[in-house]
Amino acid sequence: MEKELIKLRPEDEKKIKKIIEEKEEILVAFPYGKEAFDKSWSNQPVTFNHLIITNKRVIILKKEWFQGEGEMQDFPFEVISAVELRDQVMGSTLLIRTETESGNYEWTFKNSPKKEGETATAFLKKMMGKALCPRCFKPIKAEFLFCPYCKSRLKNTCPFCGQSLESDWVICPYCGGKGQNIGKEV
C-alpha cells in the first residue's frame, strides 16, 4: 500500500503503534468525521476519530481513546458481510456491515476522505469473509489444516480417523475417538 494512504499525525501514530501486534502492518489509516475533513487536520491540537485497516483486522479509534478515556474496537475480516462507499458533499461515507454470533452491526464512517475510502472499500471487499492465518495473516480457507504460505498448523486431526478437529473438542464427532490429544495442539 502507498504511504500516502496512512494519514496519521506523528503523536497519534506513536500511540497507535502500541496496539499493533507483531507482524501486523497498517495498510490504510485516516481520520474521519466532519472536523477531520478540514485540510489542516494534521496541524490541529485535537485528535480525531480514526479508521485503521491492517493486514489482519479493522480498528476503530474514537478521539476519546487517544485521551485515554475510550476503548478500542476491532474486528477481523472474516466477520465482514458487506462494504459500501457512498459519495457525499464532504468526502464519502464508508459503511461496513459485520455478522457475528452476538448479532449484526453496521459501522458508519461519515466524512471519510474519498481516496482513502475507495482504497479501504476495495481492500475490504477483497478480504471480507476470509479467514487469516494467525501466524502470517495471509488468507486461508476454513478447511485448511496447514497454512500454504508459512506452513503453520491451523487445525489438529483425529489420531484415529484423520478428520480435522476444533481445539476445544474432547471427542471426535466423526469416529467417536477420544483421548488426551483430541483437539489439542500436538
CATH topology (level 3) name of the domain at 3-132 = PH-domain like
Question: What is the class of the domain at 3-132 in the CATH system?
Answer: Mainly Beta
Shape: elongated
In percent terms, what proportion of residues is strand? Answer: 25-35%
Q: Which strand order spans the largest sheet, edge to edge or round the barrel? A: 1-2-3-4
Query: What is Rg?
Result: 20 Å
| Tally of helical segments | 3
SSE order, one letter for each helix or strand: HEEEHEEEEHEEEE
How would you name the CATH homologous superfamily of the domain at 3-132?
Pleckstrin-homology domain (PH domain)/Phosphotyrosine-binding domain (PTB)
Q: Mean of residue pLDDT?
A: 83
Separation of the first and last Cα atoms: 37 Å
Low-confidence spans: none
Counted beta strands? 11
Q: What is the CATH architecture annotation of the domain at 3-132?
A: Roll
Class derived from helix and strand content:
alpha+beta
Largest sheet: 4 strands, antiparallel
Describe this structure in words.
This protein has a domain of 130 residues: Pleckstrin-homology domain (PH domain)/Phosphotyrosine-binding domain (PTB) (PH-domain like, Roll). 14% of the residues lie in helices and 31% in strands. It contains three helices and eleven strands, in the order αβββαββββαββββ. The protein is an alpha+beta fold.
Q: Layout of SSEs?
A:
Blueprint: H1 10-17, E1 26-32, E2 49-54, E3 57-61, H2 63-66, E4 73-76, E5 80-87, E6 92-100, E7 103-112, H3 114-127, E8 131-132, E9 139-140, E10 156-157, E11 164-165
